[in-house]
Amino acid sequence: MNFYSMGQSKKEDFTVRENHIARYANALGHPARVAIIRLLLKKKSCICGAIVDEIPLSQSTVSQHLKVLKDAGLIKGEIEGVRVCYCLNEEEWEKAGKYLQELWKEKS
Amino acid sequence: MNFYSMGQSKKEDFTVRENHIARYANALGHPARVAIIRLLLKKKSCICGAIVDEIPLSQSTVSQHLKVLKDAGLIKGEIEGVRVCYCLNEEEWEKAGKYLQELWKEKS
DNA sequence: GAAATTAATCGTAATTTTGCGATGAATTTC
DNA sequence: GAAATTCATCGCAAAATTACGATTAATTTC
């Protein structure tokens, strides 16, 4: 249920670079996930419950979106007792930014 | 069959900004579409047939991906006789770049 | 005008996505 | 240890995505 099993996709026929970009873009391809990322950009770290409170979707749906972002590598979740503390995966986030930036720089 | 009719999405519950970002990201969320964009970034303009030749997917599937990119505003298609000449929608492309760049700058 | 070319669209199949409520597992708290 | 809290996962429904071949529409070319 992640990017690497979308539709009947043929990812293997595209470059690694194209797959990376698509993978990151795909993770940001839903407003709820953009909203979650923005929360984490602002708050540094955030327990899951707080995210659920901020996003106008059910707990289970928010959990799914968190999973998509986690599978894409953009966020990390750390268990803290009963809670789970989510935060950006800074390295991957920067890497994603670099990939996208480079795409825009490709213009000749 | 575009971003604004995805799943049983609730786009109206998110900010306009979040929707814009998700819309652009969504368009780039498939390696074939990234590949098409890269072609257009390199070649300035490209007739549809040449794109089909470069992308390892059937003509109809490539046509669908072109439609997704066009619906997101990222590319334009101009009829030239029997052919259709595709090119980046420069303004929208820059706008998309700006939106994404700003997202990365939101880190506090 | 018939034949060929080009690209969009149709029809279909398989799979994923999005969403929700319900359930389950893990940890606290009483 | 029972009850409560928290969050992931299950099960389901509706719809979108991805892919393809076949067809259609619009132009050229002969």
Quick synopsis:
2 copies of one chain form a homodimer. Chain A is 56% helix and 14% strand. Chain A has helices spanning 16-27, 31-43, 48-54, 59-71, 90-105, and strands at 45-47, 75-80, 83-88.
Assembly state: homodimer
The CATH architecture of chain A comes to: Orthogonal Bundle
Q: Can you count the helices of chain A?
A: 5
CATH-defined topology of chain A: Arc Repressor Mutant, subunit A
What is the averaged pLDDT score of chain A?
A: 91
Low-confidence sequence ranges of chain A: none
Word description of this protein:
The structure is a homodimer of 108-residue chains. The longest helix of chain A is centred in the last third of the chain and has 16 residues, at 90-105. Helices cover 56% and strands 14% of the residues of chain A. In chain A, helix 1 packs across helix 5 (90-105). Chain A has one domain: Winged helix-like DNA-binding domain superfamily/Winged helix DNA-binding domain (Arc Repressor Mutant, subunit A, Orthogonal Bundle). Chain A is built from 5 helices and 3 strands; from the N terminus they run ααβααββα. In chain A, a hairpin with a 2-residue loop joins strand 2 and strand 3. Chain A is α+β, with helices and mostly antiparallel strands. The interface between A and B is large, with 40 and 40 residues. Chain B binds a DNA duplex (30 and 30 nucleotides) through helix 3 and helix 4.
